[in-house]
Amino acid sequence: MNMIARITLFAIAATAISGCDLLDSGLRWKSGKFEIGWKNIHSDSSLIYRLDATNTINIVTACVFAAGVNDQYIVVEQHPLSNPATLNYYVLAKALYDPEQRSNDEALAGPLTEDAYREMSTRLALPKLESVIPESECRGTV
Predict the structure, then answer these.
(1) In the prediction, which pLDDT does 41 show?
(2) What pLDDT was estimated at residue 37?
(3) Measured distance CA(53)–CA(19) in Å, rounded
(4) Phi, psi at 14, each rounded to 5°
(5) Could you read off the pLDDT of 121-131 as tens digits, one per residue?
(6) What's the angle, vertex CA 100, arms to CA 96 and CA 105, rounded to 5?
(7) In 17-139, beta strands by DSSP E
(8) Which residues contact residue 138 at a Cβ distance below 8 angstroms, ignoring those fewer than 6 apart?
(9) Does 54 or 1 have the greater pLDDT score?
């Protein structure tokens, strides 16, 4: 293969990779083994539990855009990808979460409406939510 063909092939591969945002995957928030990160695009951001360097468990799927944590709880705010106009809240009781269980219904409350979340937040002294990614990236209005 001549030099021009190699350079052209390299340029095409680099363009394809950067066009898929593979270089943009990342981690935006972490508390112990709990993380919020994405693959490819920010709107894929999800709350996960990291089992080891390569294995994770999804807890709250995309698009998570805000999170908070204290000793007892993790809270997240999400616009589901299937309906970006919907606003959901989730509350995870860290002491009850067991990654070995198929169902963590006792550990995870949600999706909650804003009113239900505010009531629970007052009752349980939940942590304050802070932005993880711009909310507009979950609503498709960047």
Answers:
(1) 82
(2) 85
(3) 26
(4) -65, -40
(5) 999 999 999 99
(6) 45
(7) 26-31, 34-38, 46-50, 56-60, 64-69, 73-78, 88-93, 108-112, 130-131
(8) 42, 43, 45, 62, 63, 65, 78, 79, 84
(9) 54
CA distances from 23 to 2, 39, 41, 134 (A): 28, 9, 10, 19
* Residue 12 scores a pLDDT above 70: no
8 Å CB contact between 130 and 67:
yes
Contact between 112 and 120 (Cβ < 8 Å)? yes
- Domain parsing of the chain, residue ranges: 25-139
Q: What is the largest CA-CA distance in the chain?
A: 70
Q: How far, in Å, are 6, 12, 60, 109 from residue 92 at the CA level?
A: 51, 44, 10, 6
The dihedral formed by the CA atoms of 129, 42, 140 and 47, expressed in degrees to the nearest 10: -50
Strands of the sheet containing 34-38, edge to edge, are 26-31, 34-38, 46-50, 56-60
Residue 23 scores a pLDDT above 70: no
